Amino acid sequence: MSGFIGRVSESAVKERLLSGLKLLQFKDDDSTGVLFCNKDGKHLYRVVGQVSDLIPLIPEDVDGYLGIGHTRWSTYTRQVLENVYPLSSETGYVTLVVNGLIDNIQMIKRRLIKRGYSFRSNSAVEVVANLIEDNARENEEPIRALHRAMQFLEGDYALLAVFKGNCRQLFFAKHGVPIIIGQGRGAMLICTDYSAIADQANEYYYPKDGELGYIDTEKLVLFNSRLRETKPHFTEVSVSEKTLELGKYPHYMLKEIEEAPGVIRRLINHYFDGTKYRFDDRLIKRIIDADMIVFIAAGTSYNAALVGQRYLRNFNKKVDVFIASEWIFYPYQSGEDTLYILISQSGETADISKCLRTIRAYGADVLAITNVEVSTLYQSADYSLLLHAGTEISVASTKAYIAQITLLSLLYARLVNKITTIAALERVIEAIYNIISRRDDIKAIADKIYKSKDVFFLGRGFDYDVAVEAQLKLKETTYIHAEAYPGGEMLHGPIALVEENTPVVFFISDSLTVAATREVIEEMRNRKANTIVCSLAPFNDSSDSFIISHPIKGYHSPITFAVFAQYLAYFTAVNLGRDVDRPRNLAKAVRDRNV
Ligand code: F6R
Predict the structure, then answer these.
(1) pLDDT by residue (tens digit) across 281-292?
(2) How many other CB atoms are found less than 10 A from the CB of residue 284?
(3) Is the pLDDT of residue 442 over 60?
(4) 231 with 249, same domain?
(5) For residues 157 and 95, what is the distance between their CA atoms, to the nearest angstrom?
(6) Buried b / exposed e across 576-593, counting CB within 10 Å, b at 16+?
(7) What domain range is 264 assigned to?
(8) What beta strand segments (E) does 325-417 contain?
């Protein structure tokens, strides 16, 4: 994975640059570099390691009014210092960080070698730096060299550039890889990920493909792809993002699980005005008119789409749901008028962006459901609904899942004009507060299961959907093998894996399924499994049970049970000493590989 941040400000940048860089960094990132600019020139520090390894290398008295930082996981080779960004061109004319994939880098490098350039690294970034240097003309603004170089680059990228002798302006170029420009008090920032600067900026501009320009302490100077200066329109972010501190919590995951009641309340307030729903009438009409609805998403967002699918089927719609990375290769077009609903917490997942492009090529409409207003998905869709969950820092998604299914429930309620959903959601909020107050009971269950090698989650209907999310949460945070099955399906083969003490967690919200589920529990007991029941009513059974005795509607059980599942994953991961907020091999937004 990889990300960059740049800051130009009236005061010293080091502290805030490094705190942003830490937020960008993922557990497996293996190289980090920063460049500070001050009146004495450029100060470059790089390390094969993480921000914590880099900090001791930066002398205390070195700081700057302009800084850039980069963090990266090198997917191709073992990382070596020569290849760590930022990297400079041959004479130091420009220093760069780049994210993305440039397709014709070898061809450009061969051309530069013929023109006399030599290279100190194997990195594509050095090639781009030399390409910019090669395009520089004496007494010309650096933006022209950058623009000329862009004409040679094929592929998707975003870059930050610091030019020699110019410590007041930080240059950027964007093509295909999203970046965000933020305006704060006495500072301007550029970053690959909104969440890393959410607490440093109040207004945002989201550059389009082909745009380039620079920031100084107070403004953004923007050019379009033909190098004509254009006026950027900054947007204020609607959710307050000043809550990125951990406060009393040991982990963001725990903090974010416990933000669930607030997230639901915020969504109610946003999409219901006290007497009626506040969805764009055009969107409602579009859903009503569509012959077919297709949900596309990945990971947890896909699991939320499973719930959304049930809601819209109840609205008598033809609905399908696809995993984004599958749909890209096997896009199914029914020929009917289709509305695509793309769900993505980050709005930047590469698979989703690819689907978006294909849907665009079809000329079909897209409804985006995302947590990030300044994201490719939000900005490019025909209709967008914001999750208002606030920045989710923990890599494992918790409050965003709650927000996704709550929002889908509100949308469904609007479609069928059901005001009672609001009262039902109020009861969900109460139930979640109750779960929070009993979190130690869930910890006690985690204490019993954390040494297991397999865990199974079973449920029927909506309870199956939450089982799927529960297994993903447990798997990604604890590295324990976990699977979910529709309640009865477990008996058709997977039961072979159940051994003495294997935890099997049952979600039960629907009285219709109780008798059938009891039989499955019996089967599991015969294999001496450790059965655990999470239900909406006393189950009267000798399993370890967690009962939520609030009058929750069955169609809201995923919201409620999800909190139990998230706690179970969290406490199990803590017991195992896992890096809870940054589980291995997973990034907050799963992007393509980088240069
Ligand atoms: C799970 C998780 C991932 C993401 C998936 C999609 O906790 O975080 O499975 O849900 O990578 O990400 P978004 O929703 O940002 O598209």
Answers:
(1) 999 999 999 999
(2) 15
(3) yes
(4) no
(5) 16
(6) eebebbbbeebbbbbbee
(7) 242-418
(8) 338-344, 365-370, 383-386
| CA–CA dist 10, 345 (Å, integer) | 33
By mean pLDDT, which of 90-94, 360-364, 560-564, 570-574 is the weakest? 360-364
Bridge-based pairing state of the strands 292-297 and 338-344: parallel
185, 210, 236 - which closes a domain: 236
d(CA 325, CA 350) in angstroms, rounded, equals 9
Residue 441 is predicted with a pLDDT of 95
User: What element of type H or E holds 264?
Assistant: helix 260-271
183 with 322, same domain: the answer is no
Q: What is the pLDDT of residues 153-168, one digit of tens each?
A: 999 899 999 999 998 9
In angstroms, how far apart are the furthest CA atoms of the chain? Answer: 83
390, 418, 446 - which closes a domain: 418
Cβ–ligand 1 contact at 352 (below 6 Å):
yes
- Say if ligand 1 is within 6 A of residue 397 CB: yes
Q: Is 346 in the pocket of ligand 1 (CB under 6 A)?
A: yes
Strands 212-215 and 170-175: what pairing? antiparallel
**Per-residue model confidence as pLDDT tens digits over 338-385:** 999 999 999 988 899 999 989 998 999 999 999 988 788 998 899 999
- Which amino acid makes up residue 334? S
Q: What distance in Å separates the CA atoms of residue 584 and residue 571, rounded to the nearest whole number?
A: 17
- Kindly give the number of the ligand 1 atom that is closest to the alpha carbon of 400: 14
Q: Which of 378, 413, 75, 439 is nearest to 250 (CA)?
A: 439
Query: In the chain, how many domains are there?
Result: 3
Distance 585 CA to ligand 1 centre (A): 13
Judged by average pLDDT, the poorest of 48-57, 234-243, 391-400, 421-430 is 234-243
* Stated length of the chain: 595
Helix (H, G, I), strand (E, B) or coil at 347: coil
Q: Is the CB of residue 299 below 6 angstroms from any atom belonging to ligand 1?
A: yes
User: Does residue 59 contact residue 87 with C-beta atoms inside 8 Å?
Assistant: no
Considering the domain boundaries, does residue 423 fall inside one?
no
What CATH number has the domain bearing residue 474?
A: 3.40.50.10490
On whether the CB atoms of residues 179 and 220 are closer than 8 A, the answer is no
Helix (H, G, I), strand (E, B) or coil at 339: strand
Sequence-distant (≥ 6) Cβ neighbours of residue 136 within 8 angstroms: 93, 94, 142, 145
Q: What is the pTM of this model?
A: 0.76
- Where do the H-state alpha helices sit in 165-215? 194-197
